[in-house]
Amino acid sequence: xxxxxxxxxxxxxxxxxxxxxxxxxxxxxxxxxxxxAFQSYAWQPQA
Length: 47
Known about the structure:
Elements: H1 7-29
């Protein structure tokens, strides 16, 4: 059975990963606060 993917699918995955990585890096650099609705899921380092 052949995979039904194209180069277009691969470029889409690459673009999604690039945008998400840039978003995470930007949030890290500018210390963006977590929305109140998601605060209970925020990572807390152990002392």
